[in-house]
Amino acid sequence: MGIKQITIIGTGLTGGSLGLSLRAAGLGIHVVGCDRDHILSRARKLGAIDEGSDDPAEAVKGSDIIFLATPVGAIIDLIERIGPTAPPDALITDTGSTKKEIVDRARSVFGDQVSRRFLGGHPMAGKEHGSIFSAEAGLFHNAAWLLVPSSPQQDIRNGRIREYRQLLETLGAHIVQLDAERHDRLCAWISHLPQLISTAFAGTLVDEFGDDAALHAIGGRALREMTRIASSPYSMWRDIAYTNSGNIEQALGRLEQRLAHIRENLRTQELREEFERANQFELRKPE
Predict the structure, then answer these.
(1) Is the pLDDT of residue 164 over 80?
(2) Last residue of one domain, picked from the residues 178, 207, 241
(3) Strand positions, DSSP E, the chain
(4) Last residue of a domain, one of 178, 193, 221
(5) How far apart are CA 115 and CA 82, in angstroms?
(6) pLDDT at 64 over 90
(7) Span 170-177, mean pLDDT?
(8) pLDDT value at position 11?
(9) For the whole prediction, is pTM greater than 0.85?
(10) 3-state secondary structure of 239
């Protein structure tokens, strides 16, 4: 593999797990982290990075692949900030949960060189607590890693991009290619909507029951599963909601219609039909 050095800007859950995964794979790749000093110190102690810098322009020097593993808004700013100074043969990628605004910024910065310089990425793996303290080497094993080309002409099978794909597969991820618009629509439904449902449900429980200990004493698996991701921090989701608001609003609207129909039919045969329709989702899963 021709990858000798990787820079990870943002060594939280995703970036830290990426560093730990690279170390566990034994690839001999030098990993440079970029973050605040106390986070870099923790990342070094865990073995997620070999060296660190709080200056993105310094951290990218000499790297073959640069991962932007920060919140979406910071990714957009970083493309503008490091794009002109990153090594000319380096591939810049990201781990953001939305893609259209990120890819649009990359096109603006790199122009007709965007196919060579930037490829959008999104590992479909995470936890409700997004810090270096939750990082783990196996986070991406058997997870989908979405690749989002920065232009229709981008060939994701050759050159540095081919090495990047091989790297991800070595870490146990499987590659799925999507364009930015389809990525954002799908993720609104399968990731962003579930988070907001959990957030709304947990918030409603707080309003209805406050500190009533009985709620947790008798709550079983359904309660735990529905509220697990409700502990996700706003700082993690603010930029996702902002940059994918149109798709999220559409998904919320469709869900509101479904809930209204269920509420209106709690005593009719149509409630059974709702359950039967929902059962089809599990039955349609590929083997």
Answers:
(1) yes
(2) 178
(3) 5-9, 30-34, 51-53, 65-68, 91-94, 118-123, 144-149, 174-177
(4) 178
(5) 17
(6) yes
(7) 97
(8) 97
(9) yes
(10) helix
